[in-house]
Amino acid sequence: MFRLWKWLYNHGMVNRECGTNMQFVDEFQGRIVPARGPTDFGWDPVFQPDGYEQTYAEMPKEEKNKISHRFRALALVKSHFAEAGYTFETNCV
After folding, report:
1. Is this entry keyworded Hydrolase (predicted)?
2. Which is it for the CA torsion 55, 56, 57, 58, positive or negative?
3. What is the pLDDT of residue 57?
4. Which of 1, 27, 29, 30 is surrounded by the fewest CB atoms within 10 Å?
5. For residues 41 and 19, what is the distance between their CA atoms, to the nearest angstrom?
């Protein structure tokens, strides 16, 4: 039996000067499946994203990180600040 699953990530920030609350949310849907792949990180072995044949655990880390709900929500944060004129150094690996 497979179950549908939705991951939701919400990254919130508050501007202390004016009290504005900003929320950056993204979600990713998939299925809970029998465990496949390495079991070294949370739900990865049992979560198969919609449109993919592999579980998160079976995917190369680079591929998983590009489609994850966390990555996409934080990309919204980065986009928000880039539109406001901030720049980001991405030399860290």
Report:
1. yes
2. positive
3. 95
4. 1
5. 36
Residue 65 has phi, psi (to 5 degrees) of -65, -30
Average of per-residue pLDDT values in the chain: 80
Beta carbons of 38 and 25 less than 8 angstroms apart = no
pTM, to two decimals: 0.62
Helix (H, G, I), strand (E, B) or coil at 26: strand
Give the number of other Cβ atoms within 10 Å of residue 64's Cβ: 20
Q: ∠ at Cα 90 (89, 91), nearest 5°?
A: 100
Give the domains, in start order, of the chain with CATH numbers: 12-84 (3.90.950.10)
